[in-house]
Amino acid sequence: MDGEIVEALFRREFGRVVSTLTRIFGPRHLALAEDVAQDALIKALQLWPHRGVPANPAAWLILVARNLALDSLRREASLAAKADEIARALSPAATTPEVIDDQLAMMFLCCHPEIPRDGGIALTLKTVCGFGTGEIARAFLIQETAAAQRIVRAKKLIRERDLRFELPDHALPAERLDAVLETLYLMFNEGYASGGDQLLRRDLCEEAIRLARLTAGHAATRAPECDALLALFLLQSAREPARVDERGDLFLLRDQDRSRWDEARIAEGIVRLGRSASGDRLTRYHLEAGIAAEHAAAPDFASTNWVSIAEQYERLHELNPSPVVALNRAVALAQAQGAAVGLRELEKIELHPALERYHLLPAAMGALWREMGDAAAAERYFKRALACECSAPERRHLERQLAELTGAGVPGGKAAKQ
Amino acid sequence: MNQYLLILRNDPAVFHQMSPQQIQQVFAKYAAWRMRMQEAGRLVGGNKLEDSTGRVLTAGPSSGMRITDGPFAESKEVIGGYFMVTADSYEDAVELCRDCAHLEYGAVEVRRVEKI
Fold first, then answer.
1. Whole-prediction pTM value?
2. pLDDT at site A416
3. Which helix (H) or strand (E) holds A403?
C-alpha cells in the first residue's frame, strides 16, 4: 500500500539535502545543492502519481537526491572526487547526529556576522527550513523580489568572503552564537505576530523552536542563553491555542482561556529556563523568558506576580533601554504598585517619538486615569488610543472601557501585550 | 466505455518556481485524484516521460530517415507524461480530469482511442 507523507516532509528533506550537499560541495556551490534538492522533489511530483507513494517517502527522496548529486558531478569537474562522500552521506541510513550537524553548520553559515541579519534569516529559511521565496516574502510582508534579493546578496557574500561551513570543535565565539540566536529570535517574533497567513506564521514559530532545540542540544553550540531563548519560545507559543478567537482575532492576554495553554510546552519551558540559570551571562532572552514564565505560572491576569515581572522589565530596560520595554515595565509597575506609580512612569515616556502611533501607551494611561477616578483624562487617552492603529480586539476593549466611563464602570482594565 | 489518452503538457520551468511546501500540496492533490481513479477502476495505465531526451523522425532523402534530437526543454511546453483512462464519453473523461492536479501547473489534452 502507499506510504504516508507527513506534514512538511518535502520542506524537511529539502533542508536536509541542501545542508549535507553544501558541506560536501562547499559553500561556493550552495546554488547547486539547492538545485539538486529541488530536482529530487520535482521527481517525486512527477513520478509518484504514476508509481504511487513509496513505502518510505523520505528515503526515496534522499536516494534520488543522491543520484542527482552524483550526476551533477559529471558536469562540475572540480567536484569529481566527492562521489564517495555523497554516496555515504546521502543515504537513508546516514545517522541522525550527522544530519543535525549539517543543518546546524548550515544555519551558522547563513547567520554569519558578515551577512546582514535580514539576509541571514531569509537564507536560513530558504536553505535549512525549505521555505520558498514567496513564503518568506509573505512572512516578512515584503515583495517577493525583495526577499529574493536578500537571498542573492547573502549567497554572494558567502562566495566573495569565502565563508566557512563548519561547527567549531572548540568553544564557539559568542559573536557567532549571538548572531544565530538573534536570527532565531527575529524568526520566532515574525511568526508570533498576528495577521496574514496564520499557518505560515505557525510554521515559522515551529521552525524557530526546532532550530533552537538543535542549537541548545549540540555539544559545540549549547549555552545557557540557548536554553533561555528556547524557554522563551516554548512559554510564548504555549499560549497559541488560546490566542485566537472564532473571528481569527487575537485575544488579549487578560482575556485568554488559560486552560487551553499547552501545559507540556510550559513544563519544558520552565525546565529550560532553569537550565539557563547556569553561566554568567544575563541576556534579554533570560529576562523575557522569565517574564513569560510568570505569566505561564499565574492562574489568571489579576493574580500574576507583577512585582517580579516589573523587576525583570527593569533589568531588561538596563540591557535594552527601548521605550517599548519602558512601557511594559510601567504597565507591570501599575499592576504591582498601583495606578499612580504606573502613570508617573508612563508620563516620562509619553512624548517619546517612537511611541507616537503606538496605541498601547495611551490605552494604558487611559485605564490608569480611570482607576484614579479622572474620567475626563481617561476619555482623552482612550480616544487617542483609538486614533492609532490597533487590532479589532484591542479596539473593542478600548471602546468597552470608554463606554463604561459614562456608566458606573468597575475599574480594573489595563491593556497588556498578549 | 472507451479508452481516453490524457496527454500531460507543461512548461518545464514551472516546477522551479514552486516551494517545497507547494510541491507537497500539489502532490497531495494528485495522490487523492489517483486514489479516486483507481478505486473507480478508471486508471488503465500511465507513465512519466524522460525529460530532455527524445528523437524526432521524418522521412529523409532517398528513402532514408531524418533523425533529429528533440523535442526539447527549450520549448515552452513539453509532454511530461500520460495517463490512459476509461470513460463513457468526452464529457465523462473531462469530468474525471476536473480535479487532476496536473492542471495546477500545466494542461491536459484528452484524446479518445478510436474503436472500430
1. 0.89
2. 45
3. helix A392-406
Q: List, in sequence order, every residue forming a beta bridge with B65; answer none if it has no partner.
A: B59
**Separation between Cα atoms, residue A367 and residue A412, nearest integer Å:** 7
Beta strands across the sheet bearing B43-48: B43-48, B78-87, B2-10, B106-112
Tallying the residues shown for chain B, one arrives at 116
Q: A5, A11, A43, A46: which to substitute to probe chain B, counting the most B Cβ within 10 Å?
A: A46
CA distance A254 to B44: 60
Q: What is the DSSP string of A239-294?
A: THHHHB-TTSPBPPGGG--GGGS-HHHHHHHHHHHHHTTSSS---HHHHHHHHHHH
pLDDT tens per residue, range A98-117? 889 999 999 999 999 999 99
Confidence of residue A204 (pLDDT cuts 50, 70, 90): very high
Q: Give the three cell numbers for residue A125.
A: 529559511
Rounded distance, CA A314 to CA A147, Å?
A: 36
Q: Considering only alpha carbons, which residue of chain A is nearest residue B10?
A: A46
As a residue count, chain A comes to 418
* pLDDT tens, residue by residue, A353-396: 888 888 999 999 999 999 999 999 999 999 999 999 887 778 88
Backbone torsions φ then ψ of A167, nearest 5 degrees: -100, 125
Distances (CA, A) of A266 to A186, A206, A270: 21, 15, 6
What residues of chain B have any CB closer than 8 angstroms to a CB in chain A? 15-16, 18-24, 26-28, 30-31, 33-35, 46-48, 80-81, 83, 101-102
On the CB side of B64, CA atoms within 13 Å amount to 5
Mutate one of A41, A48, A144 to test the B interface: name it (highest B CB count within 10 A).
A41
Specify which residues A250 forms β-bridges with: A244
Q: Number of C-alpha atoms within 13 angstroms, CB side, residue A207?
A: 33
